[in-house]
Design goal:
- The structure is a homodimer.
- The first copy, chain A, contains 15 helices and 21 strands.
- Chain A is α+β, with helices and mostly antiparallel strands.
- Chain A folds into two domains: about 400 residues, no CATH class; about 60 residues, Glutathione synthase lid domain (Dna Ligase, domain 1), CATH 3.30.1490.
- In chain A, the strands form five sheets. In chain A, strands 3, 5, 6, 17, 18, 19 and 20 form a seven-stranded antiparallel beta sheet that branches. In chain A, strands 7, 8, 9, 10, 11 and 12 form a six-stranded mixed beta sheet that branches. Chain A has a four-stranded antiparallel beta sheet with strand order 13-16-14-15, sandwiched between helices.
- The longest helix of chain A is centred in the first third of the chain and has 22 residues.
- The first copy, chain A, starts with 19 loop residues before the first helix and ends with a strand.
- In chain A, about 50% of the residues are buried.
- The interface between A and B is medium-sized, with 29 and 29 residues.
């Protein structure tokens, strides 16, 4: 039962069909739009741009024209979002499954090991988290060969770009509207994207469930953050639509300024915290010293709503993704057979390195696999010949450090032509794209208050680049045009 | 009949009463607000920022807290705006008055001379301009000694900041709202500021009167413009609210790409132009060669609506301001005695340099005068001891070049305390402020379609700086808080 990519699916316009003068006009208008509407990032060429707002700003890297995407696959991706939300919540409640599945990984990956240590402590303390908030993003690529929508990963912590992605959809709709005589298209075929307000709504509702009108929402941030405007849009929505105050603190600041009151209330810098929203803490590099780990544990032990809690965080790890792809594992967490079938349909091939047949095949045909470490944040995957070398090296060492990796079927998405805007300059490029679907989930005790798809993020990157991170400089923000 | 400044008038909060931590929070929130809402300028430290949108942007320099301003003077300034609009239109129709008043200036100021040359040609050709569009800004200071609102100058060309000034009012209202528990104030005491949409409405109505739905509005711009976002906001309003397309051209480009059709239609780069909006061409430095003067003449001869026409431009010159301040001159243009009295009440002392008693007094007491050249754009006025030196030098030369200047009563505004934000840093400063009131005027034949006050611009500068230009780097954008 594969959903076929319609053969009629064509990009809304081939960049080669746009004459240079029109590209220049479009590019200029796009740059102006980004500037006036806050589609911005800190300039990487500046030292201050990651710490001081309002200085050394540059438009976010964006595609000039939205990327065509089959409507059937769009619907499929939207449909599974609430099921993945549900799955994460169920998996997170199964402490034994998390600990067992990650037991080999913990031995070789110090980062996972520290997370599991906190998780164990929480199991010991055995306080029930009544309010559970998930702001996830499930990332997909469309495999050109099988015409299947395949999941790359499920982010349960620090899902980025809810703020800027909405703006890109608006930018593209505005350009198509303005140039409707030059580019035959229908701006309404760009799906509405309200990620920032849906994220804000979920955070505000969690804040409301917590029930202290004087308490704030705390954003846990990196000390240097060039993507700060994406986060500021979320704060702006919380303030303007929900009258909720946000504060921004680094893990080190939380360690220095945070304390738990007797009833478990987290107070940071004199302010009670209702909801902790992590935009840092997902990568080993965020933990410079014991101080940051102390802060993480402090927060986890508090009665503040954690987005995510340590168990939600672990449920999104690559090893768990791989475990869930094994036969009969989804059935442990979900009852509905249809739901299970829908999720399984998006699973790419995923294997641990103790599956010797697969490892052998990957050494023979490394181009068909990606080797993924547990670490998050992009930029760490292994591709091509390097897969063979890495596997052979691990076999020789034989220390069990193969547990730090999983193998994944390599997906070959369609190659398109795009015009990418970066630092004020347009480039025509051969590109591939990755679609992220945001999901919001909120539960208080047994009552599910929110469980929905919540906007999307399209990222388009030069096809010769293996890695997908926008912040890492290889990709641009995009939107989709349904065909 | 002087309107007294209420003695109860106090700044909404003395910056010395705000503790450092609150200043830091306010400053940070102000910087974020500017970034997300497009209150931006090109960074002066960058070469590209004046030519490429979307790169090297920095928040516009702004005051952190709005400046207190007496409500009675605010009302007075608003009330005279339509009368000044009317006056400019009447003066502009009196070609003889303009030519005669500027006859001595023309001999010594080459710039005025070139403008008058074009004006003479237009008088010869004697085509009647049916559609007349004025987008003016009348600038005032409150004289501390006399408690009078006195006009500094009336700008009839390139009145800047209609776009950004609205945003500053919004920024301040947002901050007062957000920090209402820390700063006792009423955000609604910041008057509504809709300058950008009122300017756009006037431009769009003029475009509509012109009557060619395929024609565009052309912004005449400088090749390098770090204040481009102010202008882009106006274009955005025209496009989004009125579906009118704007193009941007330098004078040199207009000379190269522009032509007049037989019926007087101006076509630039293949596009018919309905309205010409000047954001360049007001200063000698905008005319690098004969090419720019040819462009100016070409536009003036066209049937496009000029904002401003050459006669509106001349009507705003300092020499004309000084002539209008002479006894019985206003009566030549206006009938209503009340209106005349209202205008006269805002006139500071203004004299030509052939009034020997005044020149003698200015040499004796130079601190009470400002010497102003005909040139526009800020940065050219003479103050203090330099007034004496300049006057003595002119007397010695005796070449008639004194006609290039006028003398104006020096106004001593109240000194306040402000927190100014520049390049991401806040500074507490002693400051003085200047209030600009925008006016929009549109007439087609005998029908006046628009004549109104249209928002405002408050500029606050360090009191030790004599010059007032925001773009020149001495001042910041501000808004007013009525007391």
């Amino acid at each position: 039962m594969q959903t076929q990519v319609e053969d009629s699916a064509k990009p809304i316009v081939d960049p080669h069909d746009i004459d240079a003068k029109l590209v220049q006009k479009l590019a200029n208008d796009a740059l102006v739009w980004c500037s006036l509407r806050g589609l911005l990032v800190g300039d990487r060429n500046s030292e201050r741009s990651g710490t001081v707002p309002g200085v050394d700003m540059v438009h976010a890297p964006v595609a000039l024209i939205p990327m065509s995407f089959p409507e059937s696959h769009w619907k499929q991706a939207c449909e599974v979002a609430p099921i993945f939300n549900e799955l994460v919540d169920r998996v997170s409640q199964d402490g034994e499954f998390l600990q067992q599945s990650l037991s080999r990984t913990r031995k070789v990956d110090p980062f996972t090991s520290r997370l599991l240590e906190i998780h164990s402590k929480m199991l010991e303390i055995n306080t029930i988290e009544e309010i559970r908030l998930g702001l996830h993003r499930s990332d997909y690529m469309l495999d050109e060969q099988t015409k299947l929508l395949l999941q790359i990963e499920l982010n349960t912590i620090s899902s980025s770009f809810p703020g800027l992605s909405c703006l890109v959809s608006e930018l593209h709709r505005s350009l198509l509207q303005q140039y409707r005589e030059d580019i035959a298209s229908d701006p309404n075929r760009i799906p509405a994207n309200n990620a920032v307000n849906q994220f804000a709504e979920a955070l505000a509702k969690a804040w409301n469930e917590y029930g202290d009108p004087r308490a704030v929402i705390m954003f846990v941030v990196q000390a240097e953050e060039r993507n700060m405007y994406d986060q500021h849009w979320l704060s702006a929505s919380l303030r303007e639509r929900h009258q909720v105050t946000t504060i921004r603190k680094t893990l080190a600041e939380i360690d220095a300024l945070g304390e738990l009151q007797q009833d478990g209330t987290l107070v940071v810098d004199g302010q009670a915290v209702a909801v902790i929203y992590f935009r840092a803490g997902y990568a080993p590099s965020d933990y410079h010293s014991e101080s940051e780990w102390k802060a993480r544990l402090l927060m986890e032990q508090s009665r503040a709503v954690k987005c995510p809690s340590i168990s939600y965080h672990l449920a999104g790890s690559k090893k768990i993704q791989q475990e869930l792809a094994k036969p009969n594992v989804l059935e442990r967490f979900l009852e509905n057979k249809d739901d299970i079938a829908k999720l399984r349909k998006c699973f790419a091939g995923l294997w641990s390195l103790d599956e010797s047949d697969i490892v052998k095949d990957a050494i023979d045909r490394p181009e068909l696999y990606v080797m993924k470490p547990q670490r998050e944040g992009g930029g760490n995957n292994i591709y091509g010949e390097d897969v063979r070398d890495a596997l052979l090296k691990l076999q020789k060492e034989g220390t069990g450090s193969d547990a730090a990796y999983i193998l994944m079927q390599r997906i070959f998405p369609k190659i398109s032509h795009s015009i990418l805007m970066r630092e004020g300059i347009s480039h025509k490029e051969q590109t591939i794209s990755e679609l992220g679907i945001y999901g919001t989930y909120l539960r208080n005790k047994t009552e599910v208050l929110i469980n929905q798809q919540a906007g999307y993020l399209m990222r388009t990157k030069v096809s010769s680049s293996n890695e997908g991170g926008v912040a890492a400089g290889f990709a641009v923000l995009d939107s989709i045009y349904l065909v």
